[in-house]
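FAQ: What does a ligand-bound record look like?

Like this one, built around iron/sulfur cluster:
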Amino acid sequence: MNKVLVSACLLGDPVRYDASHKALGDARLRRWREEGRLVPICPEVAGGLPTPRPPAEIQGGQGRQVLHGQARIADDTGDDPTDAFIRGAKLALSAARRHGVRLALLIDRSPSCGSTQIYDGHFEGTLVAGEGVTTALLRASGIEVFAPHQLDALGERLAQLDADEAF
Ligand code: SF4
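The answer part, i.e. the structure of the complex:
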């Protein structure tokens, strides 16, 4: 059965920086959960960061640059949690591989899970096109990452993989 790696906060786990969640009340997600298809993970918590924690943004680059040591992450107190973000991304990839995951549904705009937009690093609420650290690592490893607003496309892709498997 094809599984989907999912941001834990999308399933209602209160693991966001401010200890909130962003539960996605969608029937498809509930069905996939009942079918045992979902592999939840919060990369930041897995990487060792506490909840709540200060908000963090990528400084001067994208998730890919962070993975290559060409950009860092800072939180709004000036601390540098880059190593924890990278550790969390690697643990997310390990979980994906363990479950044979080829698709992921991650919350957008996060410095870890963002897949179409992230904040620009100045803590002023400005968004730029881009992706977070975990998304960059998953994509570099061949996993397709979808944002919540792309749930239709994810559902189609999952059905396609299921159909391929049936042959
Ligand atoms: Fe949600 Fe991802 Fe942020 Fe964890 S790292 S709180 S799963 S968006």
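Follow-up question: can I read anything off the structure? Yes, for example: The longest helix spans residues 82-98.
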